[in-house]
Design goal:
- By secondary structure, this protein is an all-alpha fold.
- The chain has one domain: Four Helix Bundle (Hemerythrin (Met), subunit A) (Up-down Bundle).
- Helix 2 runs antiparallel to helix 3 and helix 3 runs antiparallel to helix 4.
- The two termini are about 20 Å apart.
Length: about 180
């Protein structure tokens, strides 16, 4: 059986670890942006672009579903004794950050797909900058506000249900 690191660890720690993976993708984007693309891209450039496309097309989608389908509702359900307006605003801000990142990705994606296919292309600096800025904003909001709030408010049962939903999403089964 293959090792599946996504299935281990606290669900909140896994979300934070996913952000660290995203930061590495931003570093790869910056590296690709600086490279001269006058000629056919090198294999390393193509592979880096393919990895970035895969990350944003697949991993980001699953990560945002983890948060929007499971974490955000669990947080809103935990509002007893909390400020419901504050939690709703936090969840809405995180969802808005997801949408902004998605929009920035849709703008940059065609250039990265061309690069991944081996076509010479210069990555548009403004689009790379926008994607990185939106991603960094999302990670900062979630790492400093959303995840600590969830750690404080969610019960062990709620975290276990969240973990099961995350695992099911990654292996194609349904949560127990």
């Amino acid at each position: 059986m293959a090792f599946r690191p996504a299935l281990f660890g606290s669900p909140l720690d896994r979300l934070s670890a996913w952000h660290r993976l995203g930061e590495r993708q931003f570093e790869a984007l910056r590296w690709l942006q600086r490279a001269d693309r006058a000629a056919t891209p090198e294999a390393a450039d193509r592979h880096a672009a393919q990895g970035i496309v895969r990350y944003f097309d697949l991993s980001v989608t699953v990560h945002h579903r983890d948060e929007e389908d499971d974490l955000h509702p669990a947080l809103l359900e935990s509002m007893a004794g909390s400020d419901p307006v504050c939690l709703r605003e936090l969840v809405e801000a995180a969802t808005a950050a997801h949408r902004a990142l998605g929009q920035a990705w849709r703008q940059l994606r065609p250039s990265l797909v061309q690069l991944a296919a081996g076509e010479p292309v210069t990555l548009p600096a403004a689009e790379v900058d926008a994607l990185v800025a939106h991603g960094e904003h999302e990670f900062q909001l979630e790492d400093t506000e959303l995840l600590p709030t969830a750690a404080r408010l969610l019960t062990d049962d709620a975290l276990d249900a969240f973990r099961q939903a995350m695992d099911a999403r990654r292996v194609g089964s349904t949560p127990r």
